Amino acid sequence: MSSSHRLRVGLPKIFVTVFYLAACASIARGAPAELPALNTPPTTEHHVGKVVWEDLVTPDLAAAERFYGGLFGWTFRTIHTGDTDYAVASLDGRPIAGLVQKPMPAERRQPSWLTFIAARDVDAVARNALAHGAKVLFEARTYPGRGRQAVLTDPEGAVFAILASSSGDSPDYLAAPGEWIWSSLHAKDAGSEAAFYQELFGYDVFDATSGDGLEHLILSSDDYARASANTFPVDSARRHPHWLNYVRVDNAVAAAAKAVSMGGRVLVEPHADRHGGMVAVIADPAGAPVGLMEWTDSDSKVEPK
Hints:
Blueprint: H1 21-30, E1 51-58, H2 61-72, E2 75-81, E3 84-91, E4 94-101, E5 112-118, H3 122-131, E6 135-143, E7 147-153, E8 159-165, E9 180-187, H4 190-201, E10 204-207, E11 216-221, E12 224-231, E13 242-248, H5 252-261, E14 265-272, E15 278-283, E16 289-293
């Protein structure tokens, strides 16, 4: 992979608590039969490898709505299906995430966000993933209006979902404050994990400058940086590989303080990232981690040549 390592972008060092696999799989099991389209009206755009959606499983939907609505300005519409409550989070009228209420088991599995990556053919990607060491947590299923999706674990056990949106993928643009702006994979071996996702989604993979002696890689498609893969520090033997998603904020310090005032807590204190802005990692009142990231309008996620 070294021949394709060209990008020089700074990444934050992330330390987060354990993600539990069954909690993520329960998002898919608990989702209602009908889910909202990603784009209204539909687009003809498809960006394989782009993170296009996030779902949260939480034991207290009302509390999650208060927290994320107060912190990011999201509004919510709840879909009731049987004994399942699924809330669609929107910003300025555009759906950006889903939240499903599900009790946590006795062993106190941690609530978490599930990362959905765009694919053209979910079944083909799932077969390819299985051939390269992945496991299926939730078989491919088609949802009217949404498209076809499946939930898997990668070779190290990090949970992710693949989605072929029936309404197309959103155009590439700079996320506004309150929208998802970045996703990062944290693993024991970033290189092998990056190679796995490259096999599935055709990513270009680039080195990212780091002074910590660890491997940090950028995953890019359509000449656009999509996500990063990062090797855990040597003292992270007990941490489970996981994806972490970031929301753009105007001020990470203020947003982290506001999160605490609403019942959340800070997992990683706000600090300067190498791209120039501040980043932090917080947990919502139920414990689900989420990143905060500042991003100036002059910064670019376009892949350099």
